[in-house]
């Protein structure tokens, strides 16, 4: 992109290659030209082309994972997990396609009838930086299998690795069926608002998601699927296995340096075990020392940018409470300058109500007198992505769990535990349509009811 050179967040001496913004109008024109042919392509052929792309992606696993680590600072072990999920997603979505795209007959009623799923036409997929391939890819694959040409606009903060992913994908498809349009907000907006684009799948922040929803409000038949932020809580009940809870909270807060939509940013503990939990939690966090993301031993990489470091500093300065772990910016780690920060924990007495995501490794700890108070604290934000309850009692899990308005609910697992075998997505300000997980293909076609008489 034009302007300042972009550097690796883990090593500011590594300047990343420039990636020019794409021509959005030309990309939409090519997608429109390809749409009819791709919609008529039988599903087995679409599947065969996805399989070809899968082989190419699988062969490039290490290269892609290294690209993610260098460009976003995500530790290599996590990046390898992301690329593994990219490859596996194709199998899962093919199974979804075979199930959800099939015509339904034998419906009863006065005339023979069937329900069919029609391809919708060009789809825009907008990706975030924190899962630069996996999240966009999930929507890309669903739309491609559904017969919709895709224009993928990745995050400008991961443009290089996305460009390589794009090369590997598009070689498997006819011209115009899969395209990458690089760029930032302006390119993303132009793409999403183009009336010829019939679906938008946006993964990113709440303000941009809301702006898109407002801008598209009058185009009723254009589908907008939103994967937005979270403010995810882990509730520790008095009967919990405290070691497991402490480790899960630490992992949930520190994976991808806290920059996951499903990161644990709030921990709510019953009063009777609060002190014991606190000390085990601080012990568990000691394993997350900032380090070089390319080392296999590193569990905490840098945050993405100087702006993210500045937000971390603002939160440290502006959050009221007792700092149990004060946190610190580390401008240099292992002899390399980068955007490194340490985990921080603040014990709060307010209810933590906010409509902003934390998105850095700062954890707010709340003490609840009982589980009703814990549920009230969990519900203090407008987000509804994930929540986890640590308890040994199934009855407690059911009683607490049914009061939590979240798309993904766990017992005794980190809030980040989101395998691709399940649907994933949020309620409230966290989004709609569950584009991040299993079954998103349901939202990629238009349902048509067909009846006939006298044929
Ligand atoms: P972001 O909103 O800054 O950017 C996301 C994408 O939107 C980028 O590609 C950006 O270029 C593009 N964009 C910006 N303005 C746009 C506009 N007006 N129209 C169209 N596109 C526009 O988000 P980010 O910082 O890249 O990613 C982090 C955010 O993503 C966090 O809020 C996180 O919670 C969210 N996220 C959610 C999920 C989920 O599954 N719910 C998963 C990952 C990330």
Account of the 3D structure:
By secondary structure, this protein is of the alpha/beta class. It has helices at 24-40, 43-59, 61-72, 76-100, 134-145, 159-170, 185-193, 206-215, 242-254, 274-285, 306-318, 371-378, 394-401; strands at 7-8, 11-15, 113-119, 123-126, 150-153, 178-180, 199-203, 223-227, 232-236, 264-270, 322-325, 329-333, 336-341, 344-348, 362-368, 383-384, 386-390, 408-411, 427-428, 445-451. The longest helix is centred in the N-terminal third of the chain and has 25 residues, at 76-100. Residues 126-131, 135, 153, 155-156, 184-185, 188-189, 192, 203-205, 208, 211-212, 227-230, 261, 357, 385, 426, 430-431, 436 line the site of nicotinamide-adenine-dinucleotide (NAD).
SSE order and pairing:
Blueprint (H helix, E strand, L loop, with lengths): L6 E2 L2 E5 L8 H17 L2 H17 L1 H12 L3 H25 L12 E7 L3 E4 L7 H12 L4 E4 L5 H12 L7 E3 L4 H9 L5 E5 L2 H10 L7 E5 L4 E5 L5 H13 L9 E7 L3 H12 L20 H13 L3 E4 L3 E5 L2 E6 L2 E5 L13 E7 L2 H8 L4 E2 L1 E5 L3 H8 L6 E4 L15 E2 L16 E7 L4
Parallel strand pairs: 4-5, 4-7, 5-6, 7-8, 9-10, 9-17, 10-15, 14-15, 17-18
Antiparallel strand pairs: 1-2, 3-20, 11-14, 12-13, 16-19
Helix pairs in contact: 2-4, 2-6, 3-4, 3-6, 4-5, 9-10
The protein binds nicotinamide-adenine-dinucleotide (NAD).
Nicotinamide-adenine-dinucleotide binds next to α7 and α8.
């Amino acid at each position: 992109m034009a302007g300042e050179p972009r550097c690796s967040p883990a090593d500011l001496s590594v300047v990343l290659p420039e990636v020019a913004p794409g021509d959005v109008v030309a990309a939409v024109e090519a997608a429109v030209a390809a749409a009819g042919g791709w919609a008529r392509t039988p599903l087995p052929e679409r599947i065969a082309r996805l399989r070809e792309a899968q082989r190419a992606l699988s062969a490039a696993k290490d290269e892609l994972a290294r690209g993610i680590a260098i460009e976003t600072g995500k530790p290599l072990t996590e990046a390898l997990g992301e690329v593994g999920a990219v490859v596996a997603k194709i199998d899962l979505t093919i199974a979804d396609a075979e199930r959800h795209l099939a015509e339904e007959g034998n419906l009863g009623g006065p005339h023979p009838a069937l329900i069919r799923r029609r391809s919708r036409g060009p789809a825009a997929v907008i990706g975030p930086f924190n899962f630069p391939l996996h999240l966009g890819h999930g929507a890309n694959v669903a739309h491609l299998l559904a017969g919709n040409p895709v224009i993928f606009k990745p995050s400008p903060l991961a443009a290089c690795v996305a460009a390589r992913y794009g090369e590997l994908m598009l070689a498997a498809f006819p011209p115009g069926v899969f395209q990458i349009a690089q760029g930032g907000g302006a390119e993303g907006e132009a793409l999403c608002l183009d009336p010829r684009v019939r679906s938008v799948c946006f993964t990113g922040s709440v303000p941009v998601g809301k702006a898109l929803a407002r801008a598209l409000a009058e185009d009723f038949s254009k589908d907008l699927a939103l994967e937005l932020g979270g403010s995810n809580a882990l509730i520790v009940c008095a009967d919990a296995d405290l070691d497991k809870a402490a480790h899960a909270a630490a992992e949930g807060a520190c994976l991808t340096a806290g920059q996951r939509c499903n990161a644990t940013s709030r921990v709510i503990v019953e009063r009777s075990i609060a002190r014991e939990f606190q000390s085990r939690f601080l012990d568990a966090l000691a394993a997350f020392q900032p380090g070089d993301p390319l080392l296999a031993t590193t569990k905490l990489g840098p945050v993405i940018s100087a702006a993210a470091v500045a937000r971390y500093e603002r939160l440290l300065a502006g959050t009221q409470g007792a700092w149990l772990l004060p946190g610190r910016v580390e401008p240099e780690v292992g002899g390399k300058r980068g955007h490194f920060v340490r985990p921080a924990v603040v014990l709060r007495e307010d209810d933590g109500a906010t409509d902003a995501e934390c998105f850095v490794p700062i954890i707010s700890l709340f003490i609840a007198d009982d589980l009703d108070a814990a549920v009230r604290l969990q519900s203090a934000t407008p987000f509804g992505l994930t929540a986890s309850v640590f308890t040994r009692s199934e009855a407690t899990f059911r009683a607490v769990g049914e009061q939590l308005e979240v798309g993904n609910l766990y017992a005794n697992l980190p809030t980040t535990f989101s395998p691709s075998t399940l649907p994933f997505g949020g309620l409230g300000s966290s989004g709609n349509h569950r584009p991040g997980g299993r079954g998103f293909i349901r939202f990629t076609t238009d349902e048509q009811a067909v009846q006939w008489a006298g044929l």
